[in-house]
Amino acid sequence: MIDYLTIEKALEIAKLKSKKRFPHVLGTYKKAIELANQYNINEKKVSIAAILHDYAKNEPLDKMEMLLETIDPDLIQYNSVVYHGVVGSYLLQNKLKITDKDILLAVKNHVTGHPDMNDIAKIVYIADYTEDNRTHDGVDFCRYASKLSLDIGVLAISEAIFHYLHKISKKKIHPLTEATYHHFLQKVGVKSYEIIKNNYQSM
Ligand SMILES: [Fe+2]
Ligand SMILES: [Fe+2]
User: Fold this and answer.
1) How many CB atoms are closer than 10 A to CB 100?
2) Per-residue pLDDT tens digits for 22-44
3) For range 67-90, the mean pLDDT
4) How much distance in Å is there from the Cα of 125 to the middle of ligand 1?
5) pLDDT > 70: what percent of the chain?
6) C-alpha 24 – ligand 2 centre gap (Å)
7) How far is the CA of 141 from the centre of ligand 1 (A)?
8) Residue 169, Cβ density class (10 Å: 0-12 exposed, 13-18 middle, ≥19 buried)
9) How much is the mean pLDDT over the chain?
């Protein structure tokens, strides 16, 4: 249960973890609430997951690798950017004693995505990528797509991440990144997605 953890307390914890990253945390929280309201999803769970999604972002690499040796050794072969989702979820469970599966899974999958993400996880995944402080290429299309449906939002983001990683990554791309993109492309439909992209371009 998450009853003991208030939004204020979660914000305090996130701020203590990193003052520098706190604007991103606030932006993700704000965007997550917007999406929760639009799609009628449990606002408290979404808020806690959004506020704590980068809980492990600043953990030293060697500490994360040490933890991963026990919790998910397979992950170490991939780009280290994916570590903090899995490690964050583990630390929230073991340090903060959060047991809520929706929150733990949303944090765990916020970097790679997952074909089976529920609406709470989809919102955290989308909010992390599209919050107001983000300025990367294609982010406005991802914001537009997220207003059409959570699935279309996840598709636009997973496509952008997949193509970006293909260009820059020296290490193997995590299979969940690719699986998320392909799953949501099939779910939305290749033709429907083409129409969505064309409509956006002609706006
Ligand atoms: Fe993250
Ligand atoms: Fe983030």
Assistant:
1) 19
2) 999 999 999 999 999 999 999 99
3) 95
4) 9
5) 98
6) 7
7) 20
8) middle
9) 95
**Containing H/E element for 142?**
helix 139-148
- For range 126-137, the mean pLDDT: 96
Please state whether 113 falls in left (phi above 0), alpha (psi between -120 and 50) or beta. left
Rg, Å, the chain Cα set: 16
Global pTM value: 0.96
Ligand 2 centroid vs 54 CA: distance in angstroms? 5
Q: Is the pLDDT of residue 179 over 90?
A: yes
Closest ligand relative to 109 C-alpha: 1
CA of 58 to the centre of ligand 1 (A): 10
Q: Which ligand is nearest to the CA of 88?
A: 1
Coil, strand or helix at 21: coil
Ligand nearest the Cα atom of residue 51: 2
CA distance 14 to 9: 9
111 Cα to the center of ligand 1, angstroms: 6
Question: How far does the centroid of ligand 1 lie from the alpha carbon of residue 186, in Å?
Answer: 26
Listed in sequence order, the residues at least 6 apart from 127 whose beta carbon sits closer than 8 Å to its beta carbon are 28, 29, 31, 32, 35, 50
Report the separation in Å between the CA atom of 39 and the middle of ligand 1, taken as the mean of its atom positions.
23
Q: Are 122 and 154 in contact (CB under 8 A)?
A: yes
CATH architecture of 7-201: Orthogonal Bundle (1.10)
